[in-house]
Amino acid sequence: xxxxxxxxxxxxxxxxxxxxxxxxxxxxxxxxxxxxxxxxxxxxxxxxxxxxxxxxxxxxxxxxxxxxxxxxxxxxxxxxxxxxxxxxxxxxxxxxxxxxxxxxxxxxxxxxxxxxxxxxxxxxxxxxxxxxxxxxxxxxxxxxxxxxxxxxxxxxxxxxxxxxxxxxxxxxxxxxxxxxxxxxxxxxxxxxxxxxxxxxxxxxxxxxxxxxxxxxxxxxxxxxxxxxxxxxxxxxxxxxxxxxxxxxxxxxxxxxxxxxxxxxxxxxxxxxxxxxxxxxxxxxxxxxxxxxxxxxxxxxxxxxxxxxxxxxxxxxxxxxxxxxxxxxxxxxxxxxxxxxxxxxxxxxxxxxxxxxxxxxxxxxxx
Length: 366
Fold this sequence. Notes:
The protein is mainly α. The protein has one domain (16-322). Helix content is 72%, strand content 2%. The chain is globular, with a radius of gyration of 21 Å. It starts with a helix and ends with a strand. 46% of the residues are buried. The model is unreliable at 326-365 (pLDDT under 50). It comes from Zalophus californianus (California sealion). Belongs to the TPT transporter family. SLC35E subfamily. Pfam families: TPT. The chain crosses the membrane at residues 12-34, 46-67, 112-131, 138-156, 168-187, 207-226, 238-258, 297-316.
């Protein structure tokens, strides 16, 4: 009977993990194809991103209110000093990462975006070394070389290569390295109380919105003000469809962060990292099948080389975590750069018996 109970518990945990991974895939892959689909007809990616940020803020504020009502405990609210000094740099880097990523969809294919954005782990490692969050080891050098070599092979003589789009998404990956390093440093400060992803999203979105606004005003403001799809609309039905499509993207972005939180809280950050690797493969296969993206054998070999570097990075993190006896979480950001949140959850054991510690990087969604 005891053996049967253990088997049932194992199967239930496996089914639950699979369900959470599939939920994460739906939101993560869905928002990638959504962004590409929408930018084909709506050429204002910065405005789209800003509206998504507003929706995420709305849902995170609503979630905080519901949690506060159910737990009868006030949620953390930072002072203006801490908000501007501690949160602003992270919010600005995050806004530029997400904004440039969405902007790149105007010029490049989903496959090139997926491959180039996956190289963000390279910049994360570099900035982790600069800020001494990681120690320089020969294995990390090998990881960097594998990812950089894979990126070169994937883009070499690509028939659908676009310099402007590649520069945008590579710039987003570079800023993403700064973003996740700053986020890790921010969330390690326990006195701020931003360990819960809902609280983090709530505090980041307003400054992200303000950080993107100057770019929006310079590059899209005039064109949007004369666009018949928004400000000079003549067809109310068209306006409602556009706003509905934009609102859907905000829901996907919020769902992505929340699904990542569920996955890592029920399993581990390592599970999320491994799931992220297979998600990249699924995205490329779908892009080739649904969108007709042309991927040569050399491109596939480059992607395999890049994935081997990311897999090595994940394996090193797993060994490092096991070497600590599970007492603390993975030290650096996870291997998947496209996510919307970096979580470090730690609660005192005397307050809550469900103590957990873990990092995960949450994309970009985008």
